[in-house]
């Protein structure tokens, strides 16, 4: 899926060595999946390791007994949600997302049809969904090819390691746009991989 991006980025002095080392980009979009469940998972996973997030999400699914839906989430008390191991702020965010999807303030099924900027503006109306979560949704759920998540700590660290330049949100975003557009998502994946030991 990302062959065109890899071919383009092989011309870049920063990313080309990473493509040679790590092989093909492994982002697999989850198009046509249940975006509500995905966003609940994204909220749960904020600032947590994947393993911890999976445990909390598993407890939530056990409590709900199956598929996560706005109605099922709203039928639980805040204390019941909190008992799954998530912070109060995440309880509030998941409830807010559920209310906004139920009232159709967010058109959850239409997100894949919208341009990136519109997806972000739909999502950040939810209390607890900011630019980072919206970027992760664009990259990993919708598989959008040209997202550069400047709020991500791994991107900051990877950028500094790979380019040798101090990360600055504006200057670094400009460099990414100049050299990696229209495939900044794929370049970002390689920046993350650069932080792994192999």
TrEMBL record:
Keyword DNA damage attributed: yes
PROSITE patterns: ALKYLBASE_DNA_GLYCOS
Protein keywords: DNA damage, DNA repair
BP term (GO), one: base-excision repair, AP site formation
A single GO cellular-component term on record: cytoplasm
Keyword DNA damage: yes
Domain HhH-GPD, residue spans: 44-196
UniProt-recorded Gene Ontology molecular function terms: alkylated DNA binding; DNA-3-methyladenine glycosylase activity; DNA-7-methylguanine glycosylase activity
The EC number(s) this enzyme carries: 3.2.2.21
Matching SUPFAM superfamilies: DNA-glycosylase
Record field: transmembrane: none
CDD domains xrefs: ENDO3c
Reactions accelerated catalytically: Hydrolysis of alkylated DNA, releasing 3-methyladenine, 3-methylguanine, 7-methylguanine and 7-methyladenine
Superkingdom classification of source: Bacteria
Family, similarity comment: Belongs to the alkylbase DNA glycosidase AlkA family.
Name listed for the protein in its UniProt record: DNA-3-methyladenine glycosylase II
Organism: Candidatus Woesebacteria bacterium RIFOXYD1_FULL_43_18
């Amino acid at each position: 899926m990302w062959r065109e991006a890899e071919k383009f980025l092989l011309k870049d002095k920063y990313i080309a060595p990473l493509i040679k080392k790590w092989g093909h980009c492994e982002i697999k979009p989850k198009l046509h999946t249940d975006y509500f469940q995905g966003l609940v998972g994204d909220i749960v996973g904020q600032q947590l390791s994947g393993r911890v997030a999976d445990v909390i999400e598993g407890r939530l699914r056990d409590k709900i007994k199956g598929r996560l839906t706005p109605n099922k989430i709203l039928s639980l008390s805040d204390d019941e949600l909190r008992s799954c191991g998530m912070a109060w702020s995440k309880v509030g965010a998941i409830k807010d997302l559920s209310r906004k999807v139920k009232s159709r303030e967010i058109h959850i099924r239409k997100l894949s049809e919208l341009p990136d900027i519109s997806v972000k503006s739909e999502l950040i109306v939810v209390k607890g969904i900011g630019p980072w979560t919206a970027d992760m949704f664009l990259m990993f759920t919708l598989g959008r090819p040209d997202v550069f998540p400047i709020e991500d700590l791994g991107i900051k660290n990877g950028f500094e390691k790979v380019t040798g330049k101090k990360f600055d949100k504006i200057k670094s975003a400009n460099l990414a746009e100049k050299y990696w557009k229209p495939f900044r998502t794929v370049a970002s994946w390689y920046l993350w991989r650069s932080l792994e030991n192999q």
